[in-house]
Write a structure and sequence with these properties.
single chain; alpha/beta; Nucleoside Triphosphate Pyrophosphohydrolase; Metallo-beta-lactamase, Chain A; 2 domains; seven-stranded mixed β-sheet; five-stranded mixed β-sheet; 21 strands
Length: about 450
């Protein structure tokens, strides 16, 4: 079912004196695009339309009344700047471009980006709850930061910065919608330069319905990480998309099927080396048999190995067990980003359990990445995130769960009571996974003699 399309507005403040534009870097703890560089703005509220109607839909410049009301309100809330009170400082406001959130996102917006021309730079009073950093930047400077993995931004923002770098500003409204052929290709985003994220539909754990597939690395070793289309039709779409970029080898992060489904079919088309951990190889063979990997040139990776480079920086391999014993992670040696696989999720929750799961190791893996303190985190489900806030919150949640279980055990609860209390109202189809996670918690508590 198609998700509802809401409207939003953003302001690209540009100084005629310096040619610089004003951007903010969103706080890492925000629920929407944490750690992303963006322009100030937000969603159009119902009262914006109501106020517009009351005022007769009259607005300065070429804006609709609703967009003017929304833009005015958002600028006052976010950067402490009243458009109405500072009309004399504004030389022009015009629509630069519109972006519609791609169909794979459950929260969809029609986002309008307005250029606000000022004579000179203004010292805005930015809401610290929204932005950790802000400032006036030249477009070339912003692109340079993006290309060094110092800046992360959604594709429309990157596209606009690129356009604003041109000597002559493009005329007319720009179409900023993600370019991909719906029905023939899978979406691809590059919020982090050099990390191409493809989003094929996959047979994954609900509520997620896609597993991120990446092309990472410099030539001659560009890695296709975790290709897992849900069926042969989706496989064809994925192949059309990755063919535009090209790759030199496969890398499988761990053995769960939503990270390598249809790998044999893809390998027939692309007979390239396959990298994975030795444990992952053993799990795959045990579950799907030797024929599943037949004819593949398998290379084993372990903690501390280096596998090619990304933007000239060595790509390092990390072991992050807990969710899956053989799970591998990747990061450049400057820790500008860290691919964590299923260590966390931004859609749904991580299951710990079964023969491959270990709650003690899961805690250790979370702490390991937190201590490494990468600038950005890249999960297998959902978008990239700024900093390690999500890792910290996931660990905090697991510690709280553990304390809750210990308290219930002291009250004499058995596993069934634990399930009913902790996961009250859980959908029937998810109960087996909840049981696994409770068992993993119990194993940790008993091993550490805390019960």
């Amino acid at each position: 079912m198609a998700s509802k399309l809401r409207e939003s507005v953003s302001a690209i403040f540009r100084s005629r004196e310096t040619g610089k534009i004003f951007t903010i870097k969103r706080q890492n703890y925000l629920s929407v695009f944490p750690g992303y560089t963006a322009f100030p703005g937000g969603k159009v509220d119902p009262e914006d339309t109501q106020l517009s109607a009351k005022s007769g839909d009259v607005a300065p410049f070429a804006l609709s009344g609703t967009h003017w009301q929304a833009l005015s309100r958002e600028m006052e809330e976010e950067i402490g700047f009243s458009l109405i009170e500072n009309l004399s400082l504004i030389k022009d406001i015009f629509l630069f471009g519109t972006a519609i959130t791609p169909e794979f996102n459950p929260y969809r917006f029609k986002a309008h980006f307005f250029i606000v021309e000022l004579e000179k730079e203004i010292d805005f009073k930015v809401d610290a709850g929204e932005a950790v950093e802000s400032g006036w930047f030249g477009c070339e400077e912003l692109l340079s930061l993006y290309e060094k993995n110092t800046l992360m931004a959604v594709p429309p923002i990157v596209f606009m910065i690129q356009r604003l770098c041109q000597k002559d500003l493009p005329q007319g409204e720009q179409d900023l919608t993600l370019p991909h052929i719906v029905g023939r290709e899978v979406p691809m985003i590059e919020s982090l330069y050099g990390v191409k994220q493809f989003l094929p539909l996959s047979n994954t754990f609900p509520p997620a319905n896609r597993t991120n597939c990446f092309i990472i690395g410099d030539e001659p070793l560009k890695l296709l990480v975790d290709p897992s289309p849900k069926d042969e039709e989706e496989l064809e779409k994925l192949c059309r998309s990755v063919d535009k970029v090209g790759f030199d080898a496969f890398l499988i992060s761990h053995h769960h099927s939503d990270h390598h489904e249809h790998l044999p079919l893809m390998h027939k088309r692309y007979p390239l080396p396959v990298y994975m951990s030795e444990v992952t190889h053993q799990f795959i063979v045990n579950k799907w048999g030797l024929d599943y990997l037949k004819g593949m040139d398998i290379h084993f990776l372990k903690e501390g190995d280096s596998i090619g480079s990304s933007l000239g920086r060595r790509l390092m391999v990390y072991e992050v067990p807990g969710h899956d014993e053989g799970q591998l992670a990747l990061a450049p040696d400057d820790m500008s980003w860290f691919f964590v696989g299923d260590l966390i999720q931004t859609i749904g929750t991580v299951v710990i359990g079964g023969v491959e799961g270990d709650m003690i190791k899961y805690f250790e893996s979370l702490n390991k990445v937190i201590n490494l303190n990468p600038k950005f985190i890249i999960p297998s489900h959902g978008i990239a995130l700024g900093g390690v806030h999500k890792l910290k919150m996931t660990l905090k949640h697991r510690v709280h769960r553990e304390e809750q279980i210990i308290e219930l055990l002291r009250e004499g609860a058995d596993e069934e009571k634990l399930l009913n209390v902790i996961y009250e109202g859980l959908e029937e189809r998810l109960i087996p996974y909840a049981r696994k996670t409770i068992t993993a918690h119990l194993n940790k508590i008993r091993t550490e003699k805390r019960s």
